[in-house]
């Protein structure tokens, strides 16, 4: 959207109109924001200012990381995508206290992303694997894990600190619960960080067999939300 020069007029009148617009903007859906901004130059300028604050990705990321720019740099270097409730909250301008952060990574970048998350103060949750006696190909099967995260997933698999990156070879897979069967995920790692006097922050690292974008498109059926280091596309089948 092109920048607009603030129109000249009585300062008190411009202020009153701007404040009124801000109250209206909080009630509008994301598509309606842009429609409303096309009504006149003053409102367009007010919408631009509102959008720059309402859709500030770094402000949202600051809840999980003290240095959001460092996280965005890691995204750029590893091709990591963020999807799920975090991006949805950004798009609909809401805050959900129990929400987590889902990172979809390239398999070869597993160690780099995992180490970065640990350096950010997160600890990996313990997970248990059990051998699947019925599996003829020697693949591992996960026992049901009681999900304590309150996030938007049901069950998942994790790996311990000694997990070998060679696990991601095409000849070796870790089977997931039925929740992720169609997503072509190799494994899911769970991380937590307790914030003193506040809450427990949670991050999931999703490791796919193929590419992050393919996994996201297969994981969701009605809405797709994707945050890379430089863009936020959203594909919806119904209005949000």
Automatic annotation (TrEMBL):
Source organism superkingdom: Eukaryota
Species per Swiss-Prot/TrEMBL record: Sphaerobolus stellatus (strain SS14)
Region (Disordered): 128-175
Residue stretches of biased makeup (Acidic residues): 129-146, 159-168
Protein name: Uncharacterized protein
Taxonomic lineage: Eukaryota, Fungi, Dikarya, Basidiomycota, Agaricomycotina
């Amino acid at each position: 959207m092109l920048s607009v020069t603030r129109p000249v007029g009585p300062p008190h009148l411009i202020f009153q109109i701007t404040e009124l617009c801000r109250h209206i903007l909080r009630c509008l859906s994301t598509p309606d924001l842009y429609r409303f901004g096309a009504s006149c130059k003053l409102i367009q300028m007010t919408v631009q200012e509102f959008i720059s604050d309402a859709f500030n990705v770094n402000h949202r990321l600051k809840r999980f990381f003290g240095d959001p720019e460092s996280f965005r740099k890691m995204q750029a270097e590893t091709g990591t995508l963020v999807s799920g409730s975090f991006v949805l909250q950004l798009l609909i301008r809401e805050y959900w206290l129990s929400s987590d952060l889902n990172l979809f990574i390239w398999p070869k970048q597993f160690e780099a992303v995992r180490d970065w998350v640990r350096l950010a103060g997160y600890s990996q949750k313990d997970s248990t694997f059990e051998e699947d006696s019925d599996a003829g190909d020697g693949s591992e099967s996960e026992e049901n894990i009681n999900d304590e995260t309150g996030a938007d997933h049901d069950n998942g698999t994790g790996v311990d600190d000694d997990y070998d990156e060679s696990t991601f070879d095409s000849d070796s897979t870790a089977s997931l619960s039925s929740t992720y069967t169609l997503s072509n995920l190799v494994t899911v790692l769970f991380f937590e960080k307790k914030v003193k006097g506040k809450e427990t922050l949670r991050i999931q690292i999703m490791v796919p067999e193929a590419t992050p974008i393919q996994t996201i498109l297969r994981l969701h059926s009605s809405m797709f939300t994707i945050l890379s280091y430089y863009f936020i596309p959203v594909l919806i089948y119904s209005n949000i």
